[in-house]
Amino acid sequence: MSEHVRVQRNEDVLAITLARPDRRNAITVAMYAALADAFEAAATDEGLRLITLSGEGQDFTAGNDLGDFMAELPRDGSDIPVWRLLRALAKNEVPVVASVHGNAVGIGTTMLFHCDFVIAEEGTRFLMPFVDLGLVPEAASSLILPRLAGRRRAARYLLLGEPFGPEEAQEFGLVSHVAPAGQLQAVTAKIVGALRAKPSEALRLTQRLLRRSQSDEVLERMQLENGHFSERLTSSEVRDAISAFFASRAKAVS
Predict the structure, then answer these.
(1) Would you tell me how many other CB atoms lie within 10 Å of the CB of residue 103?
(2) How far apart are CA 96 and CA 114, in angstroms?
(3) What residues pair up with 54 in beta bridges, in sequence order?
(4) What's the Cα-to-Cα distance from 119 to each of 29, 31, 98, 177, 234, rounded to whole Å?
(5) Which tens digits make up the pLDDT trace of 147-177?
(6) Do 43 and 90 touch, CB atoms closer than 8 A?
(7) Residue 224, helix vs strand vs coil
């Protein structure tokens, strides 16, 4: 378990929090392993009614910790924590309520496609800069996003890497609720309370039915994306893009 992923069981609710606020909750390989462990364990917990997912500090998550990601991931095609997490999200049969604020970058956006409710605070910024980093999308976003938003809008977000806000995300179906500024926790608590008041078995069965229509297709697309993603990690485009990213950040700090 990573010190930067907090997992708390509150009666029948599992609260998972990204807790690395000093680095804008940028996700390390150890954090991916902890997240995967939490979602995999939830799959066998019959007493669990809900999972909540949130980020501590000013952002939901800035996406991958690129330095850690490039240094720690194996290049031999073996299974890695991020793929474990994405499979666990796709297979998950416990309703998930995500609370999002600040920036939700890369996987910070794509993991939300696998949550049942996404509550975004006003001013949230969603961004999927995979192509800018020489990479390809993951989490089956190349399948799910065009179905939700249409191919043209998906091209804006994935090919051009355009950011978008919570109102636009709610319009095409990524976000279920938009919370006024400063009211994210209150809106989340209200929705969690309403769900906890429902008959638990009916809640789980309905969630499974909602997901079942595309679960096999989602896992198949994840496998295809993961293969391309792994290949891209060794490319000169990725090395150059990440070097440029760190150079621009160092220049901004200086």
Answers:
(1) 23
(2) 8
(3) 17
(4) 26, 22, 6, 5, 36
(5) 999 999 999 999 999 999 999 999 999 999 9
(6) no
(7) helix
